[in-house]
Fold:
Amino acid sequence: MTAFESVPAIQQAFAEMDYICSHNIATCLFVAHHLGRPILAEGPAGVGKTELAKTVARYLDRELVRLQCYEGLDESRAIYEWKYGKQLLYIQLLKDKLNDVLAGAQGLEASMERLHAHEDVFFSENFLEPRPLLKALMAPKGCVLLIDEVDKADHEFEALLLEILSDFQVTVPEIGTIAATERPFVVLTSNNTREMSDALKRRCLHLYIPYPDRELESQIVGVKVPGIEQALREQLVGFIQQVRQIDLKKHPSVSETVDWARVLVLLHAHALEEAVVRDTLNIFLKFEEDIRRVRTELPGLLRSADKAADGPAHAADV
Amino acid sequence: MQQTFERFIQAVRGADIRVSVSEALEAHAAMALLGFEDRQRLKDGLGAVLAKSAAEQRRFEQCFERFFAPVPPATAPATEADADADPEAGPAPAAEAGPPAEGLARVLLERDTLALQQAVQRAAAGADIAAMRMVSQRGVFMQRIMRQLGMTELNARIEALAQGGRREEAAALRAGRSWMLNELKAYMRRQVELYTGAAGKSLREAALRERPLAQIDPADHTRLRELVQQLARRLANVHARRALRANRGVLDLRRTLRHNMGHGGDIATLHWRRSRIDRPRVVAICDVSRSVADYSQFLLLFLYSLSDALSRLRSFTFCGDVAEVTDIFARQPMAEALPAAQAAAPIGSTDYGRLWQTLVERHLDAFTPRTTVLILGDARNNHLDPGAGALKLLRQRSRELIWLNPEPELDWGTGDSEMDRYRPFCELVRQAGTLAQLEQALDEMLKRSLRAA
Structure:
């Protein structure tokens, strides 16, 4: 089977690898692969942006090269660096050899001439330390390049990415242009802490991943926590969806829903009971104010989560 | 198909989504790749290529739904079921036969929605409907489409029938005509939404930017406020950068050698060259007196928006005397901060001479060799002592002084304006009466301070 054959095929293959992707995501992957474009995935934290890249890597059976962005990230840590230490060490060690090279040369001019013949030795690929971006381009069988949280990097760094994203090549002044042996599949993620520049956006397909709807989240929990009972799963997802409607400092992400589901399974819970929920709120809420807020509204939330969980079940009966 | 695609791109641009030529090409490739069988797939795929943010994604989906609006199935004949995917995809069947009036009459009598839709689409393309930019153009385009449809011939025919004594036929055609007009109006409504939405808005915004701030209609203030904030955000985004940047991979040979002297010349530790970029330090002084009141409320809003981003911005307002409002800006929400900042300045007739004097006496610490001083005011001093000496002192202590004056340059120095006296102390003097001028002047200022750093 060829990779990324059709949208439903992608959805199915990803589901088999425990990644439930919406129609939207699958279409975006499909287009990205066939047009050879990077994907810029935006959305709240913990909806599976990073996981998406990992799954693509597994799907294509390629290596995943990850570049975690942070403030102050620069060329020397993202693209390449010269191994200065090694260069200096070699110079020291080769001091003696220098005499051989220069042996017989008369005068300064002639010595220089001899040296010129060897000067490229120290600026060759042997002394080049590839960082993630260059590594991704040099990967012999291609790879999936994940540029994580690109919004955390500086403005200047975006400019560095442009050459790589549009032409899949890097220019090293001392050596020349290094083009990708096999085009990597590129995924950039952003938590939207700042607007990305238009130039960057133009080169990417934009994929916005929101919190999943009820049905999708329920599927995700089902896949990630196979031991969970159907009724509890519906109830739990309904509850989380309710919590996301409240104004909180930080809303529970999908990964936190999954964590919570695991905890409930460990505690042998069969239904969302107030006492259990009260004790495990800290699994998916990370701020004291948020916990307090949800605690006060707990009875109401549980009731409506019950109702919501019952709703589709009844509809199915009819 | 090509035409439909081009008009769709027009419509997407109309929805305030920027589509470059390369993106349009890309969208075309994506469309070819995805095919038309699955409406949702086409929507998702084109959305991924064209929309660049969550908000644009929403607008795109709206636009897509409107553009590829399904034909209401109620009266559509069952034979052309594929019409809902793309109203123009299929070839037009009956309407092509016979003279236009003949075909049209048949369509009307049979109430053939699908044929009418197709005829209207063709007429609309002939009338170049994608060029429509404003709601007020609706009538013109409606007329054009009706002409293209053969309305004149139809009217003549009804007339002839009525006079020839075939009244029933005439009545039937008349009823058909009003049915068509209703359909046509609905169609026009959709088109107006499609093509005029954002284009009209951007025309209005462009006009707002060029109009003197003080003369803008209060009805437009909300919009203007958004524009001012947008401007501040953009400037802040570009200019509020990090302080320290490592210059990639460049060895600082001098420092490296010096530090390694102790090892007898063997190089053990390396030092890298780094360069420091300083964020601009700005002292902004805003005149809030009556003569520039309309103007200053936007400047205050601007300063407020900017103070979020530039951590080293100190703001002062003055009228009779000067007051520092940096804290007000930092602590209070916008709705409260702006009137508070305006009220903070003691009331009295504008006295620039006293302003300089007070700044020298009370706030001299704010003026350092790295400070950019930004003065927003009309320099109308009510014939009081201009106090140029104190201003000169301020200038000497700071890096540069920039004056933005809302008045046109021709008025500077006339009447009680002291602009000509102050001008020699300023590095940059600009008229900033409109939003566009303000933007240009501030951009220039921030660039200067970045370069100088």
